[in-house]
Amino acid sequence: MEVFSKDASLMDMNSFSPMMPTSPLSMINQIKFEDEPDLKDLFITVDEPESHVTTIETFITYRIITKTSRGEFDSSEFEVRRRYQDFLWLKGKLEEAHPTLIIPPLPEKFIVKGMVERFNDDFIETRRKALHKFLNRIADHPTLTFNEDFKIFLTAQAWELSSHKKQGPGLLSRMGQTVRAVASSMRGVKNRPEEFMEMNNFIELFSQKINLIDKISQRIYKEEREYFDEMKEYGPIHILWSASEEDLVDTLKDVASCIDRCCKATEKRMSGLSEALLPVVHEYVLYSEMLMGVMKRRDQIQAELDSKVEALTYKKADTDLLPEEIGKLEDKVECANNALKADWERWKQNMQNDIKLAFTDMAEENIHYYEQCLATWESFLTSQTNLHLEEASEDKP
């Protein structure tokens, strides 16, 4: 957690009151974030997943409803259906148009092995939520929200989108871009600015920490699931036992009732863990991978400039054209750097808020869970004490 407490400054301990709040809710209420003015003019909902079976493949589409007051849209409301491949296309177009902006991550194409089956209802719902968040993060981004491909994705019918997707760069053009990118990455960057060195170090450390937290969180959830499955069998055993123990009938039935209430509380806590904490942590695992890609693209742009400057210095190419190319590349590098620096601060603030909120929600869930279990077993002890006193008074002459 070092990256959260020191590098990312996620938890400012001075912001907490020295006095403990009187209830979990009051503690959560002390950690609030300033809301931005409500100037939102684009609202997107992803819902109603639908399965499609063809002779070639089986896939899921999602309904996307967009409501907007923007003048550049032809209508105030749109409804389209999109499949996962369409989301991948949008992400690729955004990266192509804005190589050094931090594009929100998409959920993986395939679920983690051993978690749930593909096309399982839980998997589909988890993906729907992730796709909903993906589109709304783009809609809330000050630059990405006005991207033309994003608008087309939200408004075009399936055949129109398919036609638009075919208008991308040709194969030879893409191959040329790939070759240049690989060549640039092989050369590396000789003089990466200090601020981007610090940024890169932060990303590497953040990636290590968030991946570790993700693995531990998944393991805790798996163990909680196993504990829950065992506890569901534990209560009924006491009921069966009570049938053969006449003097312990009430006690055994009370124990079974307490276990059942704790079982329900555990199930609720697990639901909170799987819906609140795990998706947030895993999203930032994907963000860490995205950030590494952004840094590579920034370095590729600078490496291309460095190679031209080197060619001019040693006169390895036509020196008449190089100054003009270098000037354009210098502008390109400056734009890329400025875009990344501005987006970096915005991303860090969002990340800090998301992680804080996820952890405080987890704390609230845990407190509520243990309060419920404690109250359940305290009531059991009270009932048994009273029963013992009653029996003792009846035994007196």
TrEMBL record:
InterPro entries: AH/BAR_dom_sf, BAR_SNX7, PX_dom, PX_dom_sf, PX_SNX7. The keyword Oxidoreductase does not apply. Pfam families: PX (PF00787). Keywords: Protein transport, Transport. It comes from the Eukaryota. GO terms for cellular component: early endosome; early endosome membrane; phagophore assembly site. It is found in: Early endosome membrane. SMART domains: PX. GO terms for molecular function: phosphatidylinositol binding. It is a peripheral membrane protein. Residues 40-161 form the PX domain. CDD domains: BAR_SNX7, PX_SNX7. GO terms for biological process: endocytic recycling; mitophagy; piecemeal microautophagy of the nucleus; protein transport; reticulophagy. PANTHER family: SORTING NEXIN-4, SORTING NEXIN-7. Heterodimer; heterodimerizes with SNX4. Belongs to the sorting nexin family. This is Sorting nexin 7.
